Amino acid sequence: MFQKHRKTNKLVYALMFVLLFAGGYLLGGYYMKKSLDFEAEGNTKLNAQDETAEYDSQQPVSINEKEKIINTSTKLKFINKYDKCGHQVVEESPCDNYLINLDEEGFRKIYNSWNIVEFSSKEVVLEKNFEQYCPNHYLVIEKEGSVVVQQNILGTEEMETINQLDVSIDYLPSDLRTRLKEGIILDTKKELLHMLENLES
C-alpha cells in the first residue's frame, strides 16, 4: 500500500511538471508572437510614412503656390511717392524674362529697396518714397554759373538736365540769383516757358 501511494505521488509530480513545461512553452510563444507583431506593425508604419513623404515630394505645385509665382503674364506696378510735392506717379510694365518663375522671396532680393504691397501671379505692386519732386514739375536752378532746367528721373532720386540756357547768372538781379541758387519749382510747362522768356529777354 505504501508503494502504491509513492507511485501515485510520482505520477502527480510528473503530470505537474509536464503541465508547467507546456504552460511555459505556450506563454513564451505568446509573448514572442506579440513582440514580432509589434515590430512588424512599427515597420509597416515607417514604410507608410516613407511612401507618404515620397508621394508628397512628387506632388505638383498646388494652385495657391502657383498663384504666387511670376509668369509671362504677370504685370508690375510701381507706385512712386514724392515727398517734396506730395504726388505719386504710377508706372506699369510687363515683367522681364529674368523674373519669370520667381516667388516673393526671390523677387524681394532683386527689388530689395522697394516695399512689396501685393504679390501674385497676376500682378506685383511695389511702393517707394523719394525725397524729391516728381517728374511733373520743373526745377530751374543755377549750375556752375548757368541757368538749367531739370526734371526728376522716374523711380530715382536723380534729376536730369533737360535744358540749359545761354544766360549767365551774373547779369541777373540779385534776388533772382538767390532764388536760382536754391532752385525754383514750376508746376506746368506754361509757367516754365514764361520764365524762360523773361530770363532770356
Number of helices: 5
Overall mean pLDDT: 81
Stretches where pLDDT is under 50 for at least 5 consecutive residues are 1-6
Radius of gyration: 44 Å
Structural shape: rod-shaped
Helix content: 40-55%
* Widest β-sheet, arrangement of strands: 2-1-4-3
* Ends apart, CA distance between termini: 157 Å
Note the beta-strand portion.
Answer: 25-35%
Main sheet record: 4 strands, mixed
By secondary-structure content and strand pairing, the structural class works out as: alpha+beta
N-to-C SSE string, H for helix and E for strand: HHEEHEEEEEHEH
Tally of DSSP β-strands:
8
Tell me about this structure.
The chain is an alpha+beta fold and 201 residues long. Helices cover 44% and strands 27% of the residues. It has 5 helices and 8 strands; from the N terminus they run ααββαβββββαβα. Strands 2-1-4-3 form a 4-stranded mixed sheet, with no helix packed on it. Strands 7-6-5-8 form a 4-stranded antiparallel sheet. A hairpin with a 3-residue loop joins β3 and β4. The radius of gyration is 44 Å and the shape is rod-shaped. The N and C termini lie far apart (157 Å).
Structure, briefly:
By secondary structure, this protein is of the alpha+beta class. The chain has helices at residues 2-57, 63-66, 104-110, 174-182, 189-200; strands at residues 75-82, 88-94, 115-119, 123-130, 138-143, 146-152, 159-168, 184-186.
